[in-house]
Specification:
Layout lengths: L2 H35 L5 E5 L5 H10 L3 E6 L2 H9 L3 E4 L13 E7 L8 H11 E12 L4 H8 L9 E2 L2 E2 L19 H5 L14 H11 L2 E8 L6 H10 L6 E7 L9
Parallel strand pairs: 1-2, 1-4, 2-3, 4-5
Antiparallel strand pairs: 5-9, 6-7, 8-9
Helix pairs in contact: 1-2, 4-7
Length: 264
């Protein structure tokens, strides 16, 4: 690597975290706006609620009367319950401990990409929703320009660099040089074989998420992206409006039809 190339890499590495975090912040903000603009919910379900900190934001924006959370790690469940969330222990690759039609809003924030059984996960969202209920899915976009360019360089896509608790194969990835101490707290999940808890297993592209939701039976209401690399701020937001397929994060709002078809 010559001096000029090394300088360019260092420059890109210095702004990569800012680009990623701005896109993620915009993703969360767009999710909150969609919740605020929609009718209030009776029962909110946050899939993969963790310690409940972000769940509280969704709960407030959705104006829900009750909030259910699904999580596997016991310490995270305890923290969520302390915040008033009805947190239930489950491995998300098995049938969720939620009744059919129990919820009218499901939030999946940065979670579906960790699943081995992506269609099963979407079908569980569909099952637990009442007819007319909505699902809000926030996830990384495999077809984002950052991932496309990383592949062209022979690197692991940014969104597929989290591998078993490490960031590998993508030297510009956010947290590439940081020891991820948080994953040491997930030993319970590792012992149970839930390796997806600390890895991105199936990162969906723009069309992939659309097809997963439509195949499951959902009607797509809103579909946008945030975080247009290598930009941030208003240039990134403007480019995402002009080219909605290549932002780094996907934001989809979908609805379970009132007359839902039977799924096999």
């Amino acid at each position: 690597m010559n001096a000029i190339t090394a300088s360019v890499v260092r420059g890109l590495k210095s702004i990569a975290p800012r680009i990623y975090l701005q896109g993620l912040s915009d993703c969360d903000a767009l999710g909150e706006r969609l919740l605020l603009d929609a009718p209030s919910a009776e029962v909110l379900l946050d899939v993969g609620c963790g310690d409940g900190k972000k769940t509280m934001r969704w709960w407030s924006a959705a104006r829900a009367k009750r909030c259910v959370g699904l999580e596997f790690v016991s310490s995270e469940i305890d923290a969520s319950r302390a915040r008033g969330i009805d947190a239930r222990k489950t491995d998300l690759s098995t049938t969720w401990p939620v009744a059919d039609d129990e919820c009218d809003l499901v939030i999946s924030s940065q979670n579906i990409e960790h699943m081995h059984r992506t269609l099963f996960y979407a079908r569980e969202m569909f099952r637990v929703l009442r007819p007319g209920g909505r699902a809000l899915v926030l996830t990384e976009n495999l077809s984002g320009w950052a991932n496309v360019i990383a592949l062209a360089c022979g690197w692991q896509p940014f969104s597929s660099a989290p591998i078993d608790g490490a960031i590998l194969g993508c030297p510009l990835a956010h947290l590439a040089d940081v020891e991820l101490e948080r994953f040491s707290e997930l030993g319970e999940a590792f012992e149970a074989g839930i390796v997806g808890a600390a890895a991105h297993v199936c990162v969906l592209a723009y069309q992939g998420l659309f097809d997963v939701m439509r195949t499951t039976g959902f009607e797509v209401l809103t579909y946008r992206t945030t975080g247009y690399s290598p930009f941030w701020g208003w240039p990134s937001r403007g480019l995402c409006r002009l080219d909605p397929r290549h932002g780094h994060f996907l934001v989809m709002e979908a609805r379970k039809p009132h007359e839902a078809p039977q799924r096999v």
